[in-house]
From TrEMBL:
Protein name according to UniProt: CRISPR-associated endoribonuclease Cas2
Listed SUPFAM superfamilies: TTP0101/SSO1404-like
Subunit relationships: Homodimer, forms a heterotetramer with a Cas1 homodimer.
GO molecular-function term, one example from the UniProt record: metal ion binding
Enzyme class: hydrolase
Task performed by this protein: CRISPR (clustered regularly interspaced short palindromic repeat), is an adaptive immune system that provides protection against mobile genetic elements (viruses, transposable elements and conjugative plasmids). CRISPR clusters contain sequences complementary to antecedent mobile elements and target invading nucleic acids. CRISPR clusters are transcribed and processed into CRISPR RNA (crRNA). Functions as a ssRNA-specific endoribonuclease. Involved in the integration of spacer DNA into the CRISPR cassette.
GO process terms (BP): defense response to virus; maintenance of CRISPR repeat elements
EC number: 3.1.-.-
Cofactor(s) needed: Mg(2+)
Binding site for Mg(2+): D19
Amino acid sequence: MNFERLNAYRIMWVIVMFDMPTETRVDRKRYAKFRKQILDDGFNMFQFSMYIRHCMSRENAEVHVQRVKKILPQKGHIGIMCITDKQFGQMEIFNGKDAAESPVPAQQLELF
């Protein structure tokens, strides 16, 4: 039980939020490329322009933060935030006035 409690503070969620211009064809292409690249890195859409990724440690989260920083587009407003699994689990999610379930992380195999 104590092991699980410690993990709730060790496991991290990386959140990428962005607003990017989509007025021109070039802008839409940049938007689509950025979105595809973060999806390829294991992020999942939480809301439009808000993507999340479950990471087993702060160090692993930092790897993915650096990957996002490497692919930042020329234009747009991008925010990157890391929160613990404990903090993420305290989020209240609603569909309209109805409560909804929080996303469940994919099973990951951790060796040693």
